[in-house]
Amino acid sequence: MNQTPRPQASASELWSPEEFDAAIRAVGAERYHDKHAFHKLLHGGKLNKGQVQAWALNRYCYQEAVPRKDASFISRVHDRELRREWIRRIHDHDGFGDEPGGIERWLILTDGLGLERDYVTSFRGALPATRHIVESYVRFVREQPLVVAVASSLTELFAPSIHRERIAGMLENYSFIDDGVMAYFKRRLSQAPRDADFALAYVKANAKTRAEQEACVGAVRFKCDVLWAQLDALHHAYVTPGLIPPGAFRPEGANS
Fold it and tell me: Where do the Thiaminase-2/PQQC domain residues begin and end (predicted)?
């Protein structure tokens, strides 16, 4: 029996859960950074070691910021159960007990690429654009309404596919990458879906108006822009036109 299709929601009508979910996922289909030229070069084995080092060093700025943005989020939450759930994200990155955490696993990657830890963690070689882009994300989560701040994490819906591609592509294409330094991405294959499922359910339950729903979709768009802009900066500095800013990491043999 044919069913009458549901009319498209008006500009003020609350989206159904299915429509809301589809609007969120459409952002990833359009804007997630797996479509960026630098990403394709990285996973396709088209970068040299110095360019891969530059990516890992700059991406550390983002990894280090994640538990700080989560801590700033928790500081505003009065719901004990939400705090109990969200604090796992900090433990995932900073570690807890015998679990070293994602930041340590990222440093194993930069170790394996021949970068000194003190240099990586000092941010001295990071691109100015990277530092400003990352801090814009921390500020967004600190300042936006809670449901919108949660929504900004929903790029994790799209993360497992990029992690699988990264693991396979980098292991296959770079002789200086081995299985041990890919530990960060392997762990995120299970952590990201868990976090995304919780965040998506929270956003669906707590975005009570169409305006709030649209703000949540906008938050996913903002986060995609954060990830995309980081790759823009890397591509400009280390691929083409290859203009490395003063003080930023300069791979061995770089002429610019």
Answer: 23-232
Phi-psi category of 233—alpha, beta or left, where left has phi over 0 and alpha has psi -120 to 50? alpha
Kindly state the tokens that stand for 186.
């392997």
Contact 55, 42 (CB under 8 A): yes
User: What does the buried/exposed string (b/e) look like for 152-185 if buried means 16 or more CB atoms within 10 Å of the residue's CB?
Assistant: bbbbbbbbbebbebbbebbeeebeebeeebbbbb
For 33-237, the fitting CATH number among 3.30.1360.40, 1.20.910.10, 1.10.3720.10, 1.10.10.60 is 1.20.910.10
Counting Cα atoms < 13 Å in the Cβ hemisphere of 200 gives: 20
For the chain, the residue count is 256
Task: Kindly list the domain boundaries of the chain, sorted by start residue.
Answer: 33-237
Q: Say which residue the tokens 């008006």 belong to.
A: 10
pLDDT digits (tens, 9 = 90+) for 62-103: 999 999 999 999 999 999 999 999 999 999 999 999 989 999
C-alpha torsion sign, points 158, 163, 165, 166 = positive
What's the maximum distance between 2 C-alpha atoms anywhere in the chain? 69
Instruction: Please check the confidence at residue 256 and state whether its pLDDT lies above 70.
Output: no
Number of alpha helices (DSSP H) and beta strands (DSSP E) in the chain: 11, 0
